[in-house]
Amino acid sequence: MANCAVIGAQWGDEGKGKIVDWLSARADVVVRFQGGHNAGHTLVIDGEVFKLSLLPSGIVREGKLSVIGNGVVIDPFAFKSEIERLGAQGVRITTVNLAVAENAALILPLHQELDGLREGAAGDSKIGTTKRGIGPAYEDKAGRRAIRVCDLRDTDSLGPKIDRLLTHHNALRVGFGVEPVDKDELLGQLKEIAGFILPFAVPVWRLLDDARRAGKRILFEGAQGVLLDVDHGTYPYVTSSNTVTGQAAGGAGVAPSQIGYVLGIVKAYTTRVGEGPFPTELLDETGQRLGERGHEFGTVTGRQRRCGWFDAALVRQSLKIAGVDGIALTKLDVLDGFEELKICTGYKIGGEVYDYLPAGMDAQAAAEPIYETLPGWSDSTVGARSWADLPAEAAKYVRRVEEMIECPVALVSTSPEREDVILVRDPFAD
Ligand code: GDP
Ligand code: IMO
Ligand code: MG
């Protein structure tokens, strides 16, 4: 297939960045289509670590075009600092290898502040957001009062747009007991940053149409995961965008038929950052061991990730919703050395058995996992690049996962390093 979309199938941090970086060798263009700098993608290339939040994970490979689509919310100040940070690591980012959708909505300092104010006021009902202003920015986009990248071109006409935005925000700020936003200060900040971001701003829909007609291969890079999708996730403990495959079309400006092979990224166990239901969460030593072995600390906020057993019922649900053709199973190596492993096959909720997680918040919180137990393995899988390198019980674990989630494994990842991958089926193969 010409194109491929990479979608997280759990609560994010499945290892999408590593897989996108690996796949980008086969692609010409890598496109982000939703989310913002709430994402944190870690790539390890010959021992050097690269951390990306807003920029597509294709950016570290020379000769590839990276694109930030219209479905992404862009903090222009974070955009600048990420480019500068990567520049210091030797990644040259210019208008030759990066394009930004001119119709993408901006995250402004007031969004980030509001995110923090709301979380601070929410007490026990907080979401546990990354406090990057993602939710408030998407609200303003849907509320038709966002400032977009293209608006920075004509700073003289920004005044009335800012007025419209502040009518809404200053009322909210009064409610929170904080000072209203100073219009002139915001205008000044935007005028200053405009010159940095505008050279990258293009009609991305057209650039992608040209790429399609030139026979280029496009890789769509999802952020977060299906269980954080604003419709299909564990609402309200979700992010504020659609993270499912369909969003790749709307958030980049291409036809759904252009998406191609859908690769779901699935961690061999489960993690979650922030609040919300997590049926297979382990609050014991086993959970701690998974976290330590998997280095499960958030890339963006440094928070410790909650850890638990693999939840086949939830992953099966995610894969069906996202229309996944095959999965990349990541972090199999983290399971090395466990005597036995558990996989969740469904839930008990109020005395009834479910083979999926129902939508209600209370039902989700009450879900008790039903487990199947598998034998572990004592040999190492670290760095395995072929089936033959896997201990028999590890191969059986992968096969059992495949059966339970009703989806084939296309790739297995066995370390953070770029090349440590077992390739079963090339997502770009015709
Ligand atoms: P993303 O948000 O989906 O891109 O994932 P993150 O980068 O936030 O988190 C995944 C973490 O696991 C990163 O630190 C990766 O370097 C690391 N990682 C990715 N694949 C593997 C793997 O197969 N094994 C191990 N041990 N670590 C991996
Ligand atoms: P990547 O792309 C894991 C979580 C936050 C919080 C919820 C809402 O690295 O997989 P937000 O700031 O988006 O309003 O927070 O979503 N969250 C993520 N968790 N990985 C991510 O991205 C995440 N992006 C947001 O922790 O629970
Ligand atoms: Mg991450």
What does this structure look like?
With 430 residues, the protein is an alpha/beta fold. It is 31% helix and 19% strand. It has helices at residues 16-23, 76-88, 109-121, 134-142, 158-176, 183-197, 204-213, 246-250, 285-293, 312-322, 361-366, 392-405; strands at residues 4-8, 29-32, 41-45, 48-52, 65-68, 98-101, 201-202, 218-221, 261-267, 270-272, 306-308, 310-311, 326-330, 340-349, 352-354, 368-375, 409-413, 421-423. The strands form 4 sheets. It has a 10-stranded mixed sheet with strand order 7-6-5-2-8-1-9-13-17-18, with helices on both faces. Strands 12, 14, 15 and 16 form a 4-stranded mixed sheet that branches. A two-stranded antiparallel ribbon has the order 3-4. Strand 17 (409-413) and strand 18 form a beta hairpin. Helix 2 (76-88) crosses helix 6. The radius of gyration is 22 Å and the shape is globular. The mean pLDDT is 97. Residues 12-13, 39-41, 299 line the site of magnesium ion.
What are the SSEs and their pairings?
Layout: E1 4-8, H1 16-23, E2 29-32, E3 41-45, E4 48-52, E5 65-68, H2 76-88, E6 98-101, H3 109-121, H4 134-142, H5 158-176, H6 183-197, E7 201-202, H7 204-213, E8 218-221, H8 246-250, E9 261-267, E10 270-272, H9 285-293, E11 306-308, E12 310-311, H10 312-322, E13 326-330, E14 340-349, E15 352-354, H11 361-366, E16 368-375, H12 392-405, E17 409-413, E18 421-423
Parallel strand pairs: 1-8, 1-9, 2-5, 2-8, 5-6, 6-7, 9-13, 12-14, 13-17
Antiparallel strand pairs: 3-4, 10-11, 14-15, 14-16, 17-18
Residues 12-13, 39-41, 299 line the site of magnesium ion (MG).
